[in-house]
Design a protein that fits this description.
The chain has 453 residues and is an alpha/beta fold. The chain has helices at 39-42, 47-57, 99-105, 124-140, 155-167, 182-190, 202-215, 226-232, 234-242, 259-273, 293-298, 326-335, 345-356, 364-378, 400-407, 429-452; strands at 5-9, 33-37, 95-97, 109-114, 147-151, 171-176, 194-198, 218-220, 250-254, 282-288, 339-343, 387-392. Among the domains are: 95-121 and 229-405, Rossmann fold; 422-453. The strands form three sheets. Strands 3-4-12-9-10-11 form a six-stranded mixed β-sheet, with helices on both faces. A four-stranded parallel β-sheet has the order 7-6-5-8, sandwiched between helices. α10 (259-273) links the parallel β9 (250-254) and β10 (282-288). InterPro entries: Cys_Synth/Cystath_Beta-Synth, Thr_synthase-like, TrpB-like_PALP, TrpB-like_PALP_sf.
Length: 453
């Protein structure tokens, strides 16, 4: 069966555009486009048939369907030829049962979706495999595309550079100078991207990359390009699949440019329309207090939105004051009875470290989501018996500087309540024994104090 998808305006202006067209905004009103699928075609299969097909493909070896994204190809980018797919078997990331952390905070059923356990260490791989694959197909069809470019706070640039390198396509990344970690900076450099360091913030980089792409044969890879969202929405399908097609009660996800929030909702709505699920979860978007334009709009019922100048935050990947996917995210949050909450720098740093103490290894953005979870539990918005999923967007190894500075008390204006440094001890049995028991007693007291915090 020939499944179909196309670009269409999020405000429902007339006009459909092929997925291999170089277009990002509606020509009539200027709003963002979204990918829409022919639901009548998809409904030719029953919900049970779709679930069985996805289960049969999951983590298997048949190219390219073992990928967490391309195992759902018919609902992602059906017209793409398999030989043009650029995949690193992204997705299929594990669900971490955060049993100990859940018990400590009074939650019975807490899970962390480890989207950072991917090739480049973030959930951005899910969208980039779709975008770069489509660019490869466009080039094979004779379209002149000089390079693919993005503005980034780190993770998008890493994903773009890696997938373009695998495809043999030149990538260009625009990074805000001195605002990404060294681990994030080295990724596009290592993968051969043309890396431009601009003396501005992400929003400044975003403005320039849009102009560069508009005036030249360079393809834009930021999340305003709806192809990215199609890959990222598979997180929703995969989550439900991993719970034997049961829908959780809550999903908490950190938000910066807000493409991830809209993608999360899009996946659930598609499953609902195909009768694969019977209910929708509630979605919480977690923002850093220093970069919180969506939160400020939420406080006013989303009746107005004012871009802000995002202040420096430890959660650097979401340090964005003018998110391009604002309208898409608001639409999703309204439909999912969503909540927007914020976390201070102290809260996010402590939350990341507290989670680490229970076996996680969190990036600061996951720290934002965890801090918001703690708040909503204390406010009794989330009930102790409800199933909660926290989306971990990136691997903690990308942020070792943040984590080391936390434990060494070198983060400005942060008191590290969960600091844990190496202890220098003479190489003598008595000294080691005495130190061990002294420190074990201290740790036990700190653990009890932590449970009370």
């Amino acid at each position: 069966m020939e499944y179909k998808a196309w670009f269409q305006c999020i405000s429902n202006c007339e006009g459909k555009y092929e997925l291999n067209e170089v277009i990002y905004n509606c020509p009539k009103c200027g709003d963002l486009l979204e990918v829409r699928h022919d639901l009548n075609k998809l409904k030719k299969k029953s919900a049970w048939q779709w679930m069985k097909l996805f289960d049969d493909r999951y983590r298997r070896g048949e190219w390219p369907y073992g990928s967490g994204v391309w195992g759902k190809k018919e609902m992602v980018c059906p017209g793409l030829e398999n030989q043009n797919i650029v995949s690193m078997y992204e997705g299929s990331s594990n669900l971490f049962w955060a049993e100990r952390l859940g018990k400590e905070i009074g939650l019975e059923d807490l899970w962390v979706k480890q989207c950072g356990n991917s090739h480049t260490g973030s959930f951005k791989d899910l969208g980039m495999t779709v975008l770069v694959s489509m660019v490869k197909q466009m080039i094979s069809e004779g379209k002149k595309i000089t390079a693919v470019a993005c503005a980034s706070t780190g993770d998008t640039s890493a994903a773009l550079a890696a997938y373009c390198a695998a495809a043999g396509i030149q990538s260009i990344v625009f990074l805000p100078k001195n605002k990404v970690s060294n681990a994030q900076l080295i990724q596009p450099i290592a993968n051969g991207a043309m890396t431009l360091s601009l003396d501005t913030d992400f929003d400044g980089c975003m403005k320039i990359v849009q102009e560069i792409c508009r005036k030249n044969n360079i393809y834009l890879a930021n999340s305003m390009n709806s192809l990215r969202v199609e890959g990222q929405k598979t997180v929703s399908i995969e989550l439900v699949q991993q719970f034997d097609w049961e829908v959780p009660d809550w999903i908490i996800i950190p938000g910066g440019n807000l493409g991830n929030v809209s993608a999360l909702g899009k996946g659930f709505l598609l499953m609902r329309d195909l009768w694969m699920i019977k209910k929708l979860p509630r979605i919480v978007c977690a923002q850093a207090e220093m970069a919180n334009p969506l939160y400020q709009s939420y406080l006013k019922g989303f009746e107005e939105f004012k871009p802000i100048h995002a202040k420096k935050t430890l959660a650097s990947a979401i340090q964005i004051g003018n998110p391009v996917s604002f309208k898409k995210a608001v639409k999703v949050l309204k439909e999912f009875n969503g909540i927007v909450e914020q976390a201070s720098e102290q809260e996010l740093a402590d939350a990341a470290a507290k989670g680490d103490w229970t076996g996680l290894f969190n990036c600061p953005h996951t720290g934002v989501a965890l801090a918001v979870l703690f708040k909503l539990l204390k406010k009794k918005v989330i009930a102790p018996h409800e199933r909660v999923i926290v989306i971990s967007t990136a691997h903690g190894l990308k942020f070792t500087e943040f984590k080391l500075k936390y434990h060494e008390s070198r983060l400005k204006n942060i008191t590290p309540h969960y600091a844990n440094l190496p202890i220098e001890v003479p190489a003598k049995y008595d000294a080691v024994r005495d130190t061990l028991f002294r420190e074990l007693e201290k740790k036990d007291k700190r653990r009890k104090k932590s449970l009370q915090r």
